[in-house]
Amino acid sequence: MPPDTPGAPALIGLDWGTTRLRVMLLDVAGNVIASRESDQGIRRARGAFAETFAEAIAPWRAQHPGLPVYASGMITSRNGWVQTPYLPLPADAGALAAGLVRHTMPDGTVIAFVPGLCDDSGTHPDVMRGEETEIVGHLAQNPAVADDPARLLILPGTHTKWVDGAQGRITRFRTYMTGEIYGAMTRHSILGDLMPPRDEDAPCDREAFAQGVAAAGEDGDDLLAKLFSARSLVLFERLAPAHIGDYLSGLLIGTEVAQARAGMRNSATTTGGPAATACTIIGRGDLAARYAQACEAHGFTARIAPPGAAGAGLGALHARATLHT
User: Is 237 buried (19+), middle (13-18) or exposed (0-12) by CB count in 10 A?
Assistant: First the structure.
C-alpha cells in the first residue's frame, strides 16, 4: 500500500526519554501499527545512540526501507543525541514543524528531531521536551478542544507538566518534580526504610492514596511537616507499613494538584479570565489514574485521554513538515 494510505506504514517515530525508549511504526495519521519498548533511555544508552537506534528500528527498516524518522523527548536535550533549541511560547504544531532539526546518518537515513519548548514568562523559566509532541497529538485527535479557553492538560511523569492553551497553541505551562521527589523519599529517606519490599507492578491501594490526598488538602501544616506523618501514622498504627508508598504518593500528588489549582485561581482573578474546572490527563496506566483521582478530590472534572498521543503528534508534525517541504 502507498504510505499515504490509512493503515499503511508511513513513518517511524521515537519517543526517547531519560529512562525509556519507545519505537513506533506509524501510519500517515500517526496511528500506531506496531511498537517496541525498552529501558534504553538516554541514561542507559550512555552515548551509544546511533547503535541503539539502528538496533531498535532494524526490523522495520528492512521491511519498509525509506520511511522518514521522527524523534522527540530527552534525546533532543544537551545530554541526548542531537540537541534542538527550546522554542518560545506561544507555540503550535506549525512552529514545532518549522523548528525540526534534521540529522543525516552515514547510511543516508534522515532523523527529524523535535524541538522543546520554554516558558520564560514568569520569575522562574520552565522547559519541556517530549510532552509538546503528545500535546500536539492530543489536539490533532481532539480538534474541538483546541478552542476551549479554559483547556487544561496534565501530563504526569517524573516531572509532571500542567499546560494551558488556546486556539491550538500552548500558551503556558508549569513543571512539578513530584515523581522525582517521590522516588527520592521512598529510596533515600527514613520513610523508605519503613516500607517493606514491594512489587512495582502491584496495584495502588486507593484507600491509602485517598488518605494522602485528603491530608494534602488539610489546612495547617505545610508539605514539609505533613511528610513526617507518613512515619508517625505508622507508629500510631493508623497506616500499615505496606501502604506508606501509596499514602506518600497521595500526599505529594494531592499537594501538587491543590497548589496548581490555587495558582490558577489567583491567575484568573488577576487576568479576569476563566479558571479551568476540567482537565484532561495525557498519560498511561496507574499514574494517570492516580492523577484523575486526586484531581476529582480537589474539585476538577477529570478525564484520561485515550492512548496514542505521542504517535499522533509525530504524525501531525510529519504532515506539517511535508506540506512545507
Answer: exposed
- Taking the alpha carbons of 148, 152, 157, 161 in that order, is the dihedral positive or negative? positive
| Any domain includes 274 | yes
**Number of structural domains, the chain?**
2
Range of the domain at 233: 178-304
Contact at 8 Å (CB) between 247 and 211? Answer: yes
Is residue 1 domain-resident?
no
Distances (CA, A) of 202 to 67, 151, 242: 39, 33, 11
Using the predicted structure, report yes or no on whether residue 271 has a pLDDT greater than 90.
no
pLDDT of residue 67: 94
- Model pLDDT for residues 41-86, shown as the tens digit of each residue: 999 998 899 999 999 999 898 899 999 999 999 999 999 999 999 9
Return the ∠ at Cα 125 (arms to 124 and 130), rounded to 5°.
140
Average pLDDT, the chain: 91
Q: ∠283-318-147 over CA atoms, to 5°? A: 60
Backbone φ, ψ for residue 296 (5° rounding):
-60, -40
pTM of full prediction above 0.85:
yes
188 phi and psi angles, rounded to 5 deg: -135, 35
Same domain, 21 and 113: yes
User: Which pLDDT band holds residue 251 (cuts at 50, 70, 90)?
Assistant: very high
What's the rounded Cα separation, in Å, for the pair 6 and 9? 8
Residues 6+ apart with CB under 8 A from 297: 210, 213, 214, 217, 254, 257
160-166 vs 152-155, strand pairing mode:
antiparallel
Whether residue 135 sits in one domain with residue 15:
yes
Distance CA(23)–CA(90), nearest Å, equals 29
Percentage of residues in the chain having pLDDT higher than 70: 93
Max Cα-Cα span within the chain: 67
Side by side, which strands form the sheet with 160-166?
169-176, 160-166, 152-155, 278-281, 301-304
128 within 8 A of 113, measured Cβ to Cβ: no
